[in-house]
């Protein structure tokens, strides 16, 4: 269920630069072509033993020890505990259990999700919802994308109405449609005061080039007509952090 637990700087999104403890869950139903996380169910979990050290110990199973591990990794500058993945809402009951314990101990909780399970949401202090684009997938039709997009908007709206500080994030390519980005920004503005983070795609095995500065500026200008917008590249990668 859990792939790794570690302390690092948030490298993307609205809270970029803040210190988090990341609890990364295994598996995701989607297969985005830019994803940099393995999508395998098995294997051991790894835990950073000293906060920020980058030194890990392998665990066969750590679900019952997670809270104790988080307590050991806690530092005075900690912003929140992030449930990330993979897709954490594949395990809604466990997420709810951990959240309740952590909040009782004074932690803030942060959900990073693809937004495809609005019915599985619980209470979080902060949330980041990835809005997927058609070009993020191979061999998926328009109906698949539209159904996913509808669920993403529903997830954002439910979180917003529940009082969660939620923002949206979109990984953009050079070929990303300006018309589609405008539609998304407009739809977000109808929900409420939602920040939209534009993230230029990071090169991977399947993605060889990032997004041009010109394209980023054009998309941000379009979004700025409707929502608060910011560009947040993945800074943890060039900083050599997890």
From TrEMBL:
Q: What is the required cofactor set for this protein?
A: S-adenosyl-L-methionine; Mg(2+); [4Fe-4S] cluster
Taxonomic superkingdom: Archaea
Which keywords does the record carry? Answer: 4Fe-4S, Iron, Iron-sulfur, Lyase, Magnesium, Metal-binding, S-adenosyl-L-methionine
Entry GO MF terms: 4 iron, 4 sulfur cluster binding; carbon-nitrogen lyase activity; magnesium ion binding; S-adenosyl-L-methionine binding
Q: Which family does it belong to?
A: Belongs to the radical SAM superfamily. 7-carboxy-7-deazaguanine synthase family.
Q: What does this protein do?
A: Catalyzes the complex heterocyclic radical-mediated conversion of 6-carboxy-5,6,7,8-tetrahydropterin (CPH4) to 7-carboxy-7-deazaguanine (CDG), a step common to the biosynthetic pathways of all 7-deazapurine-containing compounds.
Under HAMAP family, the record lists: QueE
Q: What is this protein called?
A: 7-carboxy-7-deazaguanine synthase
Please report the organism this UniProt entry assigns to the protein.
Methanococcus maripaludis
Gene giving rise to this polypeptide: queE
